[in-house]
Amino acid sequence: MSLLKIIEIFRTKIMKRISYAALILIILIDFFIPRHEIHFFGDGIPGFWSLFGFVACILIILISKWIGYLGIMQDEKYYNE
Amino acid sequence: MKNITMSEMFIHPSVFFILGGLIIPFLRGRAKQSYMLVVALLAFLAVLIMPHGTYGVYEFLEWQLTFGNVDKLSKAFAYIFSIMGVIGIIYSIHVDNDGEILAAFYYVGGALGVTLAGDFLTLFLFWEIMAFSSVFLIWYRKSEFSVEVGFRYLLWHVTGGLILLAGIIIKYNLSGDLTINHFPFHGWWPADLQSLASFLIIIGFIINAAVPPFGAWLPDAYPAATVTGAVFMSAFTTKTAVYALIRVCAGSEILIILGVVMAIYGVVYAVLENDARRLLAYHIISQVGYMVAGVGLGTQMAINGVVAHAFCHILYKSLLFMGTGSVLYMVGTTKLTELGGLYKTMPRTMIYTIIGGLSISAFPLFSGFVSKSMTVAAFGEEHLTWAFLLLMLASAGTFLHTGLKIPYFIWFGKDRGIKGKEPPWNMELAMIIGSLFCIGLGVFYQPLYLLLPYATNFKPYTLYHISETLQLLLFTQLGFFFLIKKLWCENSISLDTDWLPRKCAKVLMWFTNKPLSKLEYNYIGELYEFIIQKPIMRVAYYFMKIDTVVVDGTINGLGKLAMTCSQKIQNVQSGKIQHYAMIMLAGVIVLIIIGVVLP
């Protein structure tokens, strides 16, 4: 099977569903994982890092875009004018 | 002074690059290519057999220069620099421009020289060799913008170098000693001369480490460099600065805050960025932020983490620059707004780039996982929760951009019908080697841990740690697809902290061109003519009379000689400052060789 075909498989609907199932699965597994050292409160909550990852991603995109539109983003010719 | 032992095993690896490089212009074709590879491999071999100790000590005027200070820390960095030398040379073996190859050789040689330097003067010397050689990797792009960018790059590094030199001079005046030793800066502002010296040294270092607000040169310069030049640049300048910071400034608290700010700052700018290579440049800033913060923390675990992370970072970041460089080389652009759908024609390049992306994102089984986790865990151990959480946030951002945004918008996204092709064999080979290192270090991390300066029994693969990382990264991916519409790029640039100097320069140019030159021409010029020029002309008239009769005879002979000489020298005076810089650099190196080796 060619490399291209393997890549195409990852672009199918079934793969999308498998990915969603995997997301749920890793939260469920987290309930059973032993915690040896708890450095702060979040380490004790099952699924904490899932929420953290999702919220972090959303915040990074929205806040950065907001900062960008405050005047950081300029036309490519900005310095040449 | 340290023990001075001599051993035949110690050959300074920079010698291969700096002296060996000089032969390149005389070779052609396959012979040249093999020679380049052999030189890089010999330098690696020299590092491999290098025993711990102090070597290459020379008296120079009233100072003692130490060229070879080998311990676990310098050896770890020398390893990765020389490995990167080999990979970089393989990637650029097809390059037909001797000057570009030579610049890369001197650059790598400079980095190895800084790493092994035992005193500040030697460190400074190689520090400057790095700046003046790497700028050619930008200039050889040979476009109008790369000339401008190169000058800006040089200005930043010359300024940084002078600040560093000022710190070194103050330190030398206070202690009479040039040996590189632990000399941290505490507090926020220098209180006395001693802390002023360490303050200036730390500023000199963090300019090269691209710490904001002094980091704007990096995303300005790296995307403007040549395809192969950017691969070298991504590896050496910031990481030699990290090495110098570990050596001299470990435990300087200010670095914790600067490092965490850096890690986030790079992520924010990466959201806005449209050029894939500039996006990667911002992620160098972000990743070096972890290292700078770790150096600031300064515990044994943190320093181990920083060294491991620098080691892995060089490999995955160069791999990412090789992947995007291949796209630039084959397609001609790295702008995400002009790319898309390349997976059909460049699938293998995509896989190498994704391996780099997974490594920088610290995915389990990839190199970043075993190094970043150690650095971040050091913050957890010290219960610096705010720093720990912000670094985790930056990790999510790293995956968002390098693991998702770059591959998605170059290889998938909107198919723009661009016809790509896999790059030449040597570029692909270098990417395969880089990929193998990234996976190899992620799976077999023990050899890397053995190289670290302190003994460690850190175990990256605990169940909780794997679960923590997978959750963080996979849910970042969910967020990415959730907000993907927001991430489509725009044709824009982002203003950085270099806005101020660049605008100030514009204002300064306007001021000199308009009001200042008018004032000079209309008023000062007139005044000058009346008060000085006219009386002098009269006096000169009498002198001339004496001159034509008495002196001319003698002078004419000398004049002819001068004419002949200047006609010869004229060829060297090209009027291009790049050429002057190269000649000066060559002159300095010749002087050093004469000064150090001959007596």
Explain how this protein is built:
- The complex is a heterodimer of chains A (about 80) and B (about 600).
- Chain A has about 80 residues and is mainly alpha-helical.
- Chain A has one domain.
- Chain A contains three helices and one strand.
- Chain A starts with a helix and ends in a 7-residue tail after the last strand.
- In chain B, strand 1 and strand 2 form a beta hairpin.
- Chain B folds into three domains: about 250 residues, no CATH class; about 240 residues, no CATH class; about 100 residues, no CATH class.
- Chain B has a two-stranded antiparallel sheet with strand order 1-2.
- Chain B has about 600 residues and is mainly α.
- Chain B starts with 12 loop residues before the first helix and ends with a helix.
- Chain B has 21 helices and three strands.
- Classes of the chains: A mainly alpha (about 80), B mainly alpha (about 600).
- The interface between A and B is large, with 48 and 50 residues.
- Strand 1 of chain A pairs antiparallel with strand 3 of chain B, so a sheet runs across the interface.
